[in-house]
């Protein structure tokens, strides 16, 4: 499903193109849009999840990834409040899954890494839910750095993931300073 005017939010300008062949809507600006996921998005989102995991979770074996695919497909995507990040051509390039104020998933297509989409998704999640919580694999230093640079602090650590596998998790909360 594409991001169309009746199911998307106001485009957000970015400073760099996602694809050098795409023309900006307004001179010098590139756009991403966020919309609510639909059932027909799930196959595309699962593909984005798998591509992103293969590019960023080098601590997972092929067997680990194959074991996770059914959990993402059958539990996470249908069970979470999922929002889709679309590029300037309205193609999905990432997604996030929320459970109340907990960010349970944030995955961006590797071809769109470091383009501002993750930060845009965080900003949108904050508007929806307020202060966020997230668990991040300790063995994924890029993700840890991303969250820490976006206002999260480590609130705890677990030696295993939620399935009891030996993938340590850092439990992060947003660190908001109260204004006087």
**CATH level-3 fold name:** Aminopeptidase
Strands of the widest sheet, in order across it, are: 1-2-3-4-5-6-8-7
> Spans of 5+ residues with little confidence (pLDDT < 50)?
4-29
Quaternary structure of the protein? single chain
How many alpha or pi helices?
Answer: 4
Count of β-strands: 8
CATH architecture descriptor name = 3-Layer(aba) Sandwich
Percentage of residues assigned to helices: 25-40%
**Elements, N to C (H/E):** EEHHEEEHEHEE
Which percent band covers the strand fraction?
A: 25-35%
Care to describe what's here?
This protein has a single domain, classed as Gcn5-related N-acetyltransferase (GNAT) (Aminopeptidase, 3-Layer(aba) Sandwich), CATH 3.40.630. It is built from 4 helices and 8 strands; from the N terminus they run E-E-H-H-E-E-E-H-E-H-E-E. The chain has helices spanning 42-56, 62-79, 117-129, 141-149; strands at residues 12-14, 30-36, 81-86, 92-99, 102-108, 133-137, 152-158, 169-174. A hairpin with a 2-residue loop joins strand 4 (92-99) and strand 5 (102-108). Helix 1 (42-56) packs antiparallel against helix 2 (62-79). The longest helix is centred in the middle third of the chain and has 18 residues, at 62-79. The radius of gyration is 16 Å and the shape is globular. It starts with 11 loop residues before the first strand and ends in a 6-residue tail after the last strand.
């Amino acid at each position: 499903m594409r991001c169309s005017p009746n199911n998307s939010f106001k485009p957000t300008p970015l400073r760099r193109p996602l694809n050098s062949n795409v023309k900006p809507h307004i001179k010098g600006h590139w756009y991403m849009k966020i919309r609510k996921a639909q059932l027909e998005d799930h196959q595309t989102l699962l593909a984005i999840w798998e591509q992103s995991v293969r590019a960023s979770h080098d601590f997972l074996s092929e067997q680990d990834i194959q074991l996770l695919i059914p959990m993402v497909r059958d539990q996470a995507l249908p069970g979470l409040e999922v929002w889709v990040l679309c590029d300037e051509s309205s193609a999905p390039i990432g997604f996030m899954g929320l459970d109340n104020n907990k960010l349970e998933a944030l995955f961006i297509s590797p071809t769109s890494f470091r383009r501002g989409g993750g930060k845009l998704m965080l900003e949108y999640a904050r508007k929806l839910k307020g202060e966020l919580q997230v668990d991040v694999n300790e063995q994924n230093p890029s993700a840890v750095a991303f969250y820490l640079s976006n206002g999260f602090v480590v609130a705890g650590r677990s030696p295993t993931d939620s399935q009891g596998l030996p993938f340590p998790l850092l439990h992060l909360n947003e660190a908001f300073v109260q204004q006087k």
